[in-house]
Protein backbone atom coordinates (compact mmCIF):
# COMPACT_ATOMS: atom_id res chain seq x y z
CA UNK A 1 0.00 0.00 0.00
CA UNK A 2 1.27 3.46 -0.88
CA UNK A 3 1.60 5.89 2.01
CA UNK A 4 2.79 9.36 2.75
CA UNK A 5 3.90 10.97 6.00
CA UNK A 6 1.97 14.00 7.16
CA UNK A 7 2.46 16.54 9.94
CA UNK A 8 -1.05 17.57 11.08
CA UNK A 9 0.42 20.06 13.58
CA UNK A 10 3.99 21.06 14.46
CA UNK A 11 5.60 19.00 17.21
CA UNK A 12 8.23 16.42 18.07
CA UNK A 13 8.90 13.29 16.03
CA UNK A 14 5.59 11.76 17.11
CA UNK A 15 3.88 14.40 14.94
CA UNK A 16 4.84 12.34 11.87
CA UNK A 17 1.83 10.29 10.83
CA UNK A 18 1.68 7.64 8.07
CA UNK A 19 -1.54 7.72 6.02
CA UNK A 20 -2.65 5.85 2.88
CA UNK A 21 -2.08 7.70 -0.35
CA UNK A 22 -3.38 7.09 -3.86
CA UNK A 23 -1.04 8.09 -6.71
CA UNK A 24 -2.16 11.25 -8.51
CA UNK A 25 -2.07 12.17 -12.17
CA UNK A 26 0.43 14.90 -13.07
CA UNK A 27 -0.81 18.14 -14.56
CA UNK A 28 1.01 20.29 -17.12
CA UNK A 29 4.79 20.61 -16.64
CA UNK A 30 4.78 18.01 -13.85
CA UNK A 31 5.77 14.39 -13.39
CA UNK A 32 4.84 11.66 -10.93
CA UNK A 33 7.77 9.98 -9.25
CA UNK A 34 7.79 6.68 -7.39
CA UNK A 35 10.43 7.12 -4.75
CA UNK A 36 13.17 4.54 -4.25
CA UNK A 37 15.09 6.41 -1.54
CA UNK A 38 14.27 9.60 0.40
CA UNK A 39 16.91 11.79 2.02
CA UNK A 40 16.39 12.92 5.65
CA UNK A 41 17.63 16.44 6.37
CA UNK A 42 17.65 18.84 9.29
CA UNK A 43 15.37 21.17 7.35
CA UNK A 44 12.71 18.43 7.62
CA UNK A 45 13.03 18.65 11.40
CA UNK A 46 12.93 22.45 11.41
CA UNK A 47 9.71 22.36 9.38
CA UNK A 48 8.15 19.52 11.41
CA UNK A 49 8.82 21.35 14.68
CA UNK A 50 7.45 24.65 13.40
CA UNK A 51 10.82 26.41 13.57
CA UNK A 52 10.44 26.96 9.83
CA UNK A 53 6.64 27.36 9.66
CA UNK A 54 4.63 25.59 6.96
CA UNK A 55 0.89 25.39 6.48
CA UNK A 56 -0.62 22.43 8.34
CA UNK A 57 -0.93 19.68 7.44
CA UNK A 58 2.17 19.21 5.30
CA UNK A 59 4.17 16.33 3.88
CA UNK A 60 7.86 16.75 4.83
CA UNK A 61 10.89 16.05 2.71
CA UNK A 62 12.90 18.08 0.23
CA UNK A 63 15.11 15.52 -1.52
CA UNK A 64 14.77 12.02 -2.97
CA UNK A 65 15.52 9.75 -5.90
CA UNK A 66 13.10 7.61 -7.82
CA UNK A 67 11.64 6.58 -11.16
CA UNK A 68 9.20 8.58 -13.28
CA UNK A 69 5.81 6.86 -13.45
CA UNK A 70 3.79 9.44 -15.36
CA UNK A 71 4.48 12.60 -17.35
CA UNK A 72 2.14 15.57 -17.70
CA UNK A 73 1.54 17.64 -20.80
CA UNK A 74 4.23 20.05 -21.91
CA UNK A 75 7.08 18.07 -20.37
CA UNK A 76 10.12 17.70 -22.62
CA UNK A 77 13.29 15.71 -21.98
CA UNK A 78 11.86 13.31 -19.41
CA UNK A 79 10.24 9.92 -19.97
CA UNK A 80 8.38 7.25 -18.05
CA UNK A 81 10.84 4.77 -16.56
CA UNK A 82 13.68 7.30 -16.23
CA UNK A 83 15.60 7.45 -12.96
CA UNK A 84 15.81 10.94 -11.46
CA UNK A 85 16.90 12.79 -8.33
CA UNK A 86 15.83 16.15 -6.95
CA UNK A 87 16.34 18.50 -4.03
CA UNK A 88 14.50 21.69 -3.14
CA UNK A 89 10.98 23.10 -3.02
CA UNK A 90 8.16 22.21 -2.91
CA UNK A 91 8.23 19.90 0.12
CA UNK A 92 6.56 16.51 -0.13
CA UNK A 93 9.25 13.83 -0.47
CA UNK A 94 8.09 11.65 2.45
CA UNK A 95 5.73 9.65 0.24
CA UNK A 96 5.66 6.50 -1.86
CA UNK A 97 4.79 8.67 -4.86
CA UNK A 98 4.52 12.40 -5.41
CA UNK A 99 3.94 15.02 -8.08
CA UNK A 100 6.93 17.23 -8.84
CA UNK A 101 7.54 20.19 -11.16
CA UNK A 102 9.31 18.66 -14.14
CA UNK A 103 12.25 21.07 -14.03
CA UNK A 104 13.19 19.76 -10.57
CA UNK A 105 13.68 16.18 -11.79
CA UNK A 106 17.33 15.65 -12.74
CA UNK A 107 18.27 12.43 -14.62
CA UNK A 108 20.63 10.21 -12.64
CA UNK A 109 23.82 9.27 -14.53
CA UNK A 110 23.97 5.65 -15.65
CA UNK A 111 25.63 3.44 -13.08
CA UNK A 112 25.05 5.72 -10.09
CA UNK A 113 23.20 3.82 -7.33
CA UNK A 114 19.91 5.44 -6.45
CA UNK A 115 20.73 5.37 -2.76
CA UNK A 116 23.94 7.29 -3.50
CA UNK A 117 22.02 9.83 -5.58
CA UNK A 118 19.41 10.28 -2.86
CA UNK A 119 21.92 10.61 -0.02
CA UNK A 120 24.33 12.88 -1.86
CA UNK A 121 22.42 15.22 -4.15
CA UNK A 122 20.97 17.77 -1.74
CA UNK A 123 24.20 17.89 0.27
CA UNK A 124 26.24 18.41 -2.90
CA UNK A 125 23.83 21.11 -4.09
CA UNK A 126 24.23 22.85 -0.73
CA UNK A 127 28.02 22.56 -0.95
CA UNK A 128 28.00 24.06 -4.44
CA UNK A 129 26.02 27.04 -3.15
CA UNK A 130 28.32 27.54 -0.17
CA UNK A 131 31.65 27.06 -1.93
CA UNK A 132 30.93 28.89 -5.18
CA UNK A 133 28.09 31.37 -4.66
CA UNK A 134 28.32 32.48 -1.01
CA UNK A 135 32.12 32.51 -0.93
CA UNK A 136 34.37 31.51 -3.86
CA UNK A 137 36.70 28.94 -2.34
CA UNK A 138 40.06 28.31 -3.98
CA UNK A 139 43.74 27.68 -3.33
CA UNK A 140 45.12 29.44 -0.27
CA UNK A 141 41.77 29.92 1.43
CA UNK A 142 41.33 28.68 5.00
CA UNK A 143 37.90 27.37 6.01
CA UNK A 144 36.28 26.45 9.30
CA UNK A 145 33.58 23.77 8.93
CA UNK A 146 31.50 22.95 11.99
CA UNK A 147 30.11 19.41 12.36
CA UNK A 148 32.73 18.24 9.87
CA UNK A 149 31.87 14.56 10.41
CA UNK A 150 28.21 14.96 9.45
CA UNK A 151 26.84 14.10 6.04
CA UNK A 152 27.05 17.67 4.73
CA UNK A 153 30.22 18.38 6.70
CA UNK A 154 32.14 15.58 5.02
CA UNK A 155 31.02 16.73 1.58
CA UNK A 156 32.08 20.31 2.38
CA UNK A 157 35.50 19.16 3.60
CA UNK A 158 36.21 17.01 0.53
CA UNK A 159 34.94 19.61 -1.95
CA UNK A 160 36.88 22.45 -0.29
CA UNK A 161 40.04 20.34 -0.34
CA UNK A 162 39.39 19.57 -4.01
CA UNK A 163 39.34 23.33 -4.61
CA UNK A 164 42.72 23.71 -2.92
CA UNK A 165 41.64 25.13 0.44
CA UNK A 166 42.90 24.34 3.92
CA UNK A 167 40.10 23.05 6.16
CA UNK A 168 39.72 23.18 9.92
CA UNK A 169 36.85 21.03 11.15
CA UNK A 170 35.06 20.74 14.47
CA UNK A 171 33.50 17.58 15.88
CA UNK A 172 31.92 16.54 19.15
CA UNK A 173 34.01 13.41 19.76
CA UNK A 174 37.30 11.72 18.94
CA UNK A 175 35.47 9.10 16.89
CA UNK A 176 33.90 11.77 14.73
CA UNK A 177 37.24 13.55 14.49
CA UNK A 178 38.64 10.49 12.72
CA UNK A 179 35.77 10.67 10.24
CA UNK A 180 36.53 14.34 9.55
CA UNK A 181 40.22 13.56 9.07
CA UNK A 182 39.34 10.74 6.70
CA UNK A 183 37.34 13.26 4.66
CA UNK A 184 40.48 15.36 4.38
CA UNK A 185 40.32 17.91 7.18
CA UNK A 186 43.77 19.35 7.84
CA UNK A 187 43.00 20.08 11.50
CA UNK A 188 40.14 18.95 13.74
CA UNK A 189 39.06 20.67 16.94
CA UNK A 190 37.33 18.17 19.22
CA UNK A 191 34.73 18.75 21.91
CA UNK A 192 31.41 20.54 22.19
CA UNK A 193 32.90 22.92 24.76
CA UNK A 194 36.25 23.41 23.03
CA UNK A 195 37.65 26.92 22.80
CA UNK A 196 37.40 26.99 19.03
CA UNK A 197 38.53 30.59 18.64
CA UNK A 198 41.77 29.95 20.55
CA UNK A 199 42.43 26.76 18.62
CA UNK A 200 41.82 28.52 15.29
CA UNK A 201 44.12 31.36 16.34
CA UNK A 202 46.88 28.85 17.09
CA UNK A 203 46.41 26.99 13.81
CA UNK A 204 46.33 30.18 11.71
CA UNK A 205 49.08 32.05 13.62
CA UNK A 206 46.51 34.57 14.86
CA UNK A 207 45.07 35.47 11.47
CA UNK A 208 41.77 33.60 11.62
CA UNK A 209 39.97 31.76 8.83
CA UNK A 210 38.76 33.33 5.62
CA UNK A 211 35.38 31.63 5.74
CA UNK A 212 33.40 29.77 8.39
CA UNK A 213 30.37 27.55 7.74
CA UNK A 214 28.12 27.01 10.76
CA UNK A 215 25.20 24.60 10.70
CA UNK A 216 24.96 24.39 14.50
CA UNK A 217 23.59 27.80 15.42
CA UNK A 218 22.90 28.80 19.01
CA UNK A 219 25.91 30.19 20.82
CA UNK A 220 28.21 28.40 18.37
CA UNK A 221 27.44 31.10 15.83
CA UNK A 222 28.43 33.81 18.30
CA UNK A 223 31.72 32.05 19.05
CA UNK A 224 32.36 31.50 15.36
CA UNK A 225 32.56 35.23 14.71
CA UNK A 226 35.77 35.31 16.74
CA UNK A 227 37.36 32.72 14.43
CA UNK A 228 37.23 34.75 11.24
CA UNK A 229 39.76 37.27 9.95
CA UNK A 230 38.82 40.86 9.22
CA UNK A 231 36.74 41.09 6.06
CA UNK A 232 36.08 37.38 6.27
CA UNK A 233 32.70 35.68 5.84
CA UNK A 234 30.51 33.58 8.15
CA UNK A 235 27.72 31.48 6.62
CA UNK A 236 24.97 30.47 9.05
CA UNK A 237 23.11 27.55 7.46
CA UNK A 238 21.24 25.88 10.32
CA UNK A 239 20.47 25.70 13.98
CA UNK A 240 20.78 22.09 15.06
CA UNK A 241 22.19 23.33 18.38
CA UNK A 242 19.55 25.96 19.07
CA UNK A 243 17.89 29.06 17.74
CA UNK A 244 20.00 31.76 16.12
CA UNK A 245 20.52 34.49 18.74
CA UNK A 246 19.88 38.14 18.05
CA UNK A 247 23.16 39.68 16.93
CA UNK A 248 23.81 43.42 17.20
CA UNK A 249 25.35 44.84 14.07
CA UNK A 250 28.34 45.82 16.21
CA UNK A 251 29.18 42.11 16.51
CA UNK A 252 30.11 42.22 12.83
CA UNK A 253 31.77 45.59 12.54
CA UNK A 254 33.30 47.96 12.11
CA UNK A 255 36.03 46.53 14.37
CA UNK A 256 35.75 42.97 13.06
CA UNK A 257 34.63 44.02 9.55
CA UNK A 258 32.84 40.68 8.98
CA UNK A 259 30.15 39.66 6.52
CA UNK A 260 27.39 37.37 7.81
CA UNK A 261 25.47 35.33 5.26
CA UNK A 262 22.27 33.41 5.97
CA UNK A 263 21.95 31.46 2.69
CA UNK A 264 19.12 29.04 1.96
CA UNK A 265 19.62 26.11 -0.38
CA UNK A 266 15.84 26.10 -0.82
CA UNK A 267 16.05 29.64 -2.20
CA UNK A 268 19.04 28.58 -4.32
CA UNK A 269 17.06 25.67 -5.77
CA UNK A 270 14.05 27.93 -6.40
CA UNK A 271 16.00 29.75 -9.11
CA UNK A 272 15.85 27.53 -12.20
CA UNK A 273 19.20 28.66 -13.57
CA UNK A 274 21.02 28.25 -10.26
CA UNK A 275 19.37 24.87 -9.76
CA UNK A 276 20.44 23.52 -13.15
CA UNK A 277 24.01 24.77 -12.77
CA UNK A 278 24.22 23.48 -9.20
CA UNK A 279 22.65 20.13 -10.08
CA UNK A 280 25.10 19.54 -12.93
CA UNK A 281 28.06 20.37 -10.69
CA UNK A 282 26.66 18.28 -7.84
CA UNK A 283 26.22 15.15 -9.96
CA UNK A 284 29.69 15.59 -11.45
CA UNK A 285 31.23 15.81 -8.00
CA UNK A 286 29.18 12.86 -6.73
CA UNK A 287 30.27 10.72 -9.68
CA UNK A 288 33.91 11.68 -9.09
CA UNK A 289 33.68 10.71 -5.41
CA UNK A 290 34.33 14.24 -4.12
CA UNK A 291 30.74 14.84 -3.03
CA UNK A 292 29.61 11.27 -2.47
CA UNK A 293 27.75 10.86 0.80
CA UNK A 294 27.05 7.44 2.27
CA UNK A 295 23.90 6.41 4.05
CA UNK A 296 24.73 5.49 7.63
CA UNK A 297 21.32 3.91 8.13
CA UNK A 298 18.02 3.35 6.33
CA UNK A 299 14.52 3.28 7.77
CA UNK A 300 11.17 2.23 6.38
CA UNK A 301 9.17 5.25 5.23
CA UNK A 302 6.52 4.46 7.85
CA UNK A 303 9.23 4.71 10.52
CA UNK A 304 10.26 8.26 9.63
CA UNK A 305 9.92 9.26 13.29
CA UNK A 306 12.86 7.02 14.25
CA UNK A 307 15.04 8.66 11.60
CA UNK A 308 14.17 12.08 13.01
CA UNK A 309 14.97 10.99 16.56
CA UNK A 310 18.38 9.68 15.48
CA UNK A 311 19.23 12.81 13.49
CA UNK A 312 18.19 15.10 16.35
CA UNK A 313 20.27 13.10 18.82
CA UNK A 314 23.50 14.18 17.15
CA UNK A 315 24.72 10.58 17.17
CA UNK A 316 24.65 10.02 13.42
CA UNK A 317 27.58 10.56 11.07
CA UNK A 318 26.53 10.35 7.44
CA UNK A 319 23.23 10.28 5.64
CA UNK A 320 19.90 8.81 6.70
CA UNK A 321 17.43 7.42 4.20
CA UNK A 322 13.76 6.46 4.16
CA UNK A 323 12.88 3.52 1.92
CA UNK A 324 9.23 3.28 0.75
Alpha carbon gap, first and last residue: 10 Å
Low-confidence stretches: none
Tell me the domain tally: 2
CATH top level of the largest domain is Alpha Beta
Helix content: 25-40%
Give the total of beta strands.
15
Give the second-level CATH assignment, the architecture of the largest domain: 3-Layer(aba) Sandwich
Pattern of helices and strands: EEEHEEEEHEHEHEHEHEEHHEHE
What does this structure look like?
With 324 residues, the protein is an alpha/beta fold. It has two domains: 136 residues, Medium-chain alcohol dehydrogenases, catalytic domain (Quinone Oxidoreductase, Chain A, domain 1); 141 residues, 3-Layer(aba) Sandwich (Rossmann fold), CATH 3.40.50. The chain is 31% helix and 25% strand. Strands 3, 4, 5, 6, 7, 14 and 15 form a seven-stranded mixed sheet that branches. A six-stranded parallel sheet has the order 10-9-8-11-12-13, sandwiched between helices. Helix 2 packs across helix 3 and helix 2 crosses helix 8. The model has no long low-confidence stretch (mean pLDDT 96).
